[in-house]
Write a structure and sequence with these properties.
Distance between the termini of chain A: 41 Å
Structural class of chain B: mainly beta
Distance between the termini of chain B: 35 Å
Radius of gyration of chain A: 13 Å
Strand content of chain A: over 45%
Helix content of chain A: under 10%
Order of helices and strands of chain B: EEEEEEEEEEE
Helix content of chain B: under 10%
Radius of gyration of chain B: 13 Å
Oligomer: heterodimer
Strand content of chain B: over 45%
Mean pLDDT of chain A: 92
Largest sheet of chain A: 6 strands, mixed
Shape of chain B: globular
Number of helices of chain A: 0
Order of helices and strands of chain A: EEEEEEEEEEEE
Largest interface: A-B, 20 and 27 residues
């Protein structure tokens, strides 16, 4: 069964600094990969997804992620963060649609003015 | 506007009572999902349904029940057998079982008094 590891539970970063949120998954079989963002007391919003094709995926709000099959990673990056990026971020994976999504435990990004 | 609605936003339950959380979608999606979210634990799958009149247990189904009598509705009942029901509950849907991009509702916070 798939599992997802988000290596950092909390990431503080100063405004306008770059950030990387790390995500590793357990299996090297063909996968779909997702990043979601959750603002306090709200549901999850899709940031970006990798289904196939280019390994560099661009999403909303200036975020991007790179799929690395050999390292089974899908790290999320943003070159310059804003206060409004403060939220919890979840990485998720499924085995090419054959299984439900498996979510990581989340990374809380705090942007400091 | 198309989307997923969950009601109520906050729900209080006395110990020993069953309570039902509502989830409705007008996206014409075949698949629907229920997740439980606890601090620091990410999202855990309770039940999912890929088609009307069919549903499968997720990772933490004990103490919960669901029905899927209509395509647009997937209510979740938290029974008295669920010993620790206080949590944030999220409903999601996707176009089909093979399309794993899930869209989330705003959530219901359940508190046991």
């Amino acid at each position: 069964a798939q599992s997802v590891t988000q290596l950092d539970s909390q990431v503080p970063v100063f405004e306008e600094a770059p950030v990387e949120l790390r995500c590793n998954y357990s299996s090297s079989v063909s996968v779909y990969l997702f990043w979601y963002v959750q603002y306090p007391n709200q549901g999850l919003q899709l940031l970006l997804k990798y289904l196939s094709g280019s390994t560099l995926v661009k999403g909303i709000n200036g975020f991007e992620a790179e799929f690395n099959k050999s390292q089974t990673s899908f790290h999320l990056r943003k070159p310059s963060v804003h206060i409004s990026d403060t939220a919890e971020y979840f990485c998720a994976v499924s085995d090419r649609g054959n299984t439900p999504l498996v979510f990581g435990k989340g990374t809380r990004l705090s942007v400091i003015a | 506007d198309g989307g997923i609605t969950q009601s109520p936003k906050y729900l209080f339950r006395k110990e020993g009572q069953n309570v039902t959380l509502s989830c409705e979608q007008n996206l014409n999606h075949d698949a629907m999902y229920w997740y439980r979210q606890d601090p620091g634990q990410g999202l855990r799958l309770i039940y999912y349904s890929q088609i009307v009149n069919d549903f499968q247990k997720g990772d933490i189904a004990e103490g919960y029940s669901v029905s899927r009598e209509k395509k647009e509705s997937f209510p979740l009942t938290v029974t008295s057998a669920q010993k620790n029901p206080t949590a944030f509950y999220l409903c999601a849907s996707s176009i089909s079982r093979d399309q794993e991009t899930q869209y989330f509702g705003p959530g219901t916070r359940l508190l046991v008094l």
